[in-house]
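Sample intake sheet
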Amino acid sequence: MNMHFEGSSSVKLLFDFWDVHGPAGMVLSVFVVLLLTVFYELLKVWKVTIGKQMGSSITHSSAPVSFSPGASCFAPVMKCQEGSSSLTNSPSEISLAPTENTAITADTTAAAKKSWLLHCLQTAIHLLQVTLGYMLMLCVMSYNVWIFLGVIIGSVLGYFLAFPLLNHI
C-alpha cells in the first residue's frame, strides 16, 4: 500500500463493499464521509449538553444529599435531621426511624434516576463518537486526497454549525 496521498477516483473505504471506481462514486463517497464528520461534531456537542443537564439536575435537587464512603456510589444517603425521637441518637437505629418527609426522598430518587439515565445516554453517545472517530481516521488513512478533504471540510462545517448551539444551552 502506498503511504502518500493520491488524487485518484479509485479507493476502497472501510469495508470490501465500499469500493469506489469512478468520479461519481468518489463524489458520493466524499459526501457520505463529510456527513459522517458533521455528525461526529454534533455528537460532541450533544455529549456536552447532556453533561450540563446532569450537572443541573444534581444542583437543582431540593433534598440535602450526601454520599457515605461505605455505601454504594449510586445510593444517596439523606442527611439526618435533629428530631425529638430517641432513635436518632443511636447510629444503628437511624434506619429504623420513620421518614418525616417522603416528598424529599421521592425527589432525590427521581433526580438520581434521571442522573443515572443521562449518564447511560452520555456513555452510549461516547461509544458512538469513538467508533465514528476511528472510522473517519481509517477513511483518512486510505490516503485519498478527496476523502481527506471531505473529512476536513466536514469537521469545519460541523464545528461551524454545532458549537454555536452550546451558547443557547
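Comment: The mean pLDDT is 77. Residues 10-63+111-168 form one domain.
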